Amino acid sequence: MEIFLKADTWLALLTLCFLEIVLGIDNIIFISIVSNKLPEELRQRARNTGLFLAMFVRIGFLLGITWIIGFKQPLFSVADILPDFLIKFLGFHGDHTFSGRDLILGFGGLFLIAKSTMEINHEMEGEADEHGTKKSKVPTLSGTILQIILLDIIFSFDSILTAIGIVDKVIIMIMAVIVSIGVMMFFSGAISKFIQQHPSMEVLALGFLILIGFMLFLEALEYAVPKGYIYFAVAFSLLIELTNIRVVKKRKSDPVKLHKPFNEADISDALGKGEPEEQFATDPSYPIGKFTPKESYTSEELGDLISKIEKLPLKIEDASRGLTDEQLDSPYREGGWTLRQVIHHLADSHMNAYIRVKWTITENTPTIKAYDQKGWAETPDAKLPISVSLNLLKSLHAKWVDILKALTPEQLTKEFIHPETQKHVRIDRMIDNYAWHGEHHLAHIKVLKKRKGW
After folding, report:
1. What is the pLDDT of residues 72-108, one digit of tens each?
2. What is the C-alpha separation between 338 and 333, in angstroms, rounded?
3. Of 293, 304, 314, nearest to 404 (Cα)?
4. pLDDT in tens, 246-264
């Protein structure tokens, strides 16, 4: 152990630790995204277990260091697997060789690109879709840990080859690996939580992984891409997104507007005009626009959203009052549901929402049961008088709102898993979604009445 009495040893160890941590940034991003698909109580366990096992894999690689170096020896060339005419047609070099390292980096890069692309697709699907045709399995703890280990093996090659190039003492390499894994364990939780709270950061991180996957693939083809360029692009994009998040937070409240004092003429005009006419979008499918969730909600904002849910049954009853059976059986748009189906759908949908809230506050990140809302809108009870669903909505919302008003800040951030998108949905965002949902279908009734002159 006399090597630890030398200053050069400690300098090499510090340098190697720093490089191992920098090279592990992309690994931490992947681990954060994969673990966020699990129930909240399993995420930390998955991250730590995966990284802990991956540490032994790296140490095993270091102990078999001559074997690792052998991965750089050519295994075959392009001419060995492709005929001459195809090599000429594709413009390849027939003498280009592939090593074991090239194959691992190449397939690892393609896996990262494919995995990140699919995750972006899931992110863009949204959380409110109830009748997707493709069912996705909820990820398991063992499957997540396996993904972490496999990707760490791929990312290990860079760090191991870096270690070999800096020091020649295996003990120093092993110490650097242990330190870097420890840093990953310490910071992965905070990074995962930050990404979970800011969906835009998840999409940005997935974009980084596509970039890194492409870089690994190019490296397998022996096209050297300076990593400084990649890390600069990542750092710059991250800085822009962090600035955007701060700007959005500052815009939570409307800016103060100055108004002139009212005079008698203004008061007379206001009284003469009565209630301002509601304005709706031209899209008959989304008369109040599509649902856009926020990253966080103040208590005042949640109070307003719960108030909308509380008032909805009476608003629906008022909007549908006096409509004949013929009018109720009219579609709100061409090819759309009838007003009768819309009202019965509100009862069906909000029953599911009520049950999901109770599941979420009484269990640990439950996986809810999705339903085919189109199929439900065509069952025989969808032809009943609307009074049946109006009475149900009144009772249902009384119970639902009583629960929502009593939720603590901790309960408002509890989550359930949607089985079709595999997304974790917080209760506060769900409240926003269903406040919008009620107003969305209320607008369908009002727009049709206005268009028909009823």
Report:
1. 778 788 777 777 777 777 666 767 788 877 777 777 7
2. 8
3. 304
4. 776 665 444 444 444 545 4
Q: Are strands 97-99 and 415-417 parallel, antiparallel or unpaired?
A: unpaired
pLDDT at 1: 56
b or e along 274-283 (b: 16 or more beta carbons within 10 Å of the residue's beta carbon)?
eeeeeebeee
164/172 Cα distance (integer angstroms): 10
Side chain identity at 370, as an amino acid letter?
A
How many CB atoms are located within 10 Å of the residue 373 CB? Answer: 15
DSSP per residue, 228-239: HHHHHHHHHHHH
Length of the chain: 454
Q: 292: left (phi > 0), else alpha (psi -120 to 50), else beta?
A: beta
pLDDT value for 257: 47
pLDDT digits (tens, 9 = 90+) for 387-409: 999 999 999 999 999 999 999 98
The CB-side HSE value for 16 (13 A sphere, CA atoms) comes to: 28
**Which residue in the block uniquely carries the two structure tokens 């003492």?**
169
Q: How much is the pLDDT for 338?
A: 94
d(CA 174, CA 59): 6
Half-sphere exposure of 29 (CA within 13 A, CB side): 23
CB atoms inside a 10 Å sphere around CB 9 = 17
Beta bridge partners of 416: 425
